[in-house]
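During the reporting period the student researcher (J.K.) took over the structure-prediction task from the postdoctoral fellow and processed the backlog of single-chain submissions. One of the processed entries is reproduced below for the supervisory committee.
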Amino acid sequence: MNKLLALIPARSGSKGIKNKNILKICGKPLIQYTIEPALKLKALGLVDSVIVSTDCGNIANISARLGAEVPFLRPRNISGDKAKSIDLIIHTINYFKKKNILFDAVLLLQPTSPLRDMITLKKAIELFKNNNTESLISCYREEYINELVMYNSCSDNILTPLNIDHNKGVRRQDHGELFIRNGAIYITKVDYIKKTKQIISDNPLLIEMKKSKSINLDSLEDLEILKKMLCESEF
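J.K. obtained the following structure tokens:
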């Protein structure tokens, strides 16, 4: 892998939290917590470009002031609530292809997962470069949540278990552990993206993150937790 594009998606609309990508948290717009480490990766020669894909002029201006490149405004048809990340990725790849700028892989960094650190980012890129794989994803290890403690939506307050052994007293140690995708880091080869129109391959490579660092900002409750974590730490 020769050229790596760091791509930060930041559309304007947000139902749960208004303007969340540029919401001030501990004195910084949320997107800054993603742009800053991405620029450090570029300074280290680990990524070649740091691009923000947005449909919003205000987000574009803030991102540019922070040092990211914003070479275009994303078209409306791939910016709404139903737009998929793969569409904005392909749009960005095609934009640069028209300028004869080709990338070998894309590092997708969502602003709503701001707790990834430089050590993990560098390790993820190193793992991806040193392994013959189409994609890498970040996950946290989960030792409790599994189908033995999960139920379908209830009717009249009656639950339907996902597993018939839900009430058999199976110990946590006996059901094993899972890895849960946390949305913080994705790396995918461009050839795979173009061929499959997917970000994650069937057997992606793992970069593990702590569960406490895996918050993905989506609700006001997430926001309160995130404020506490960012403002009370030296992150």
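The committee noted the following: The chain has seven helices and ten strands.
J.K. will present the remaining backlog at the next meeting.
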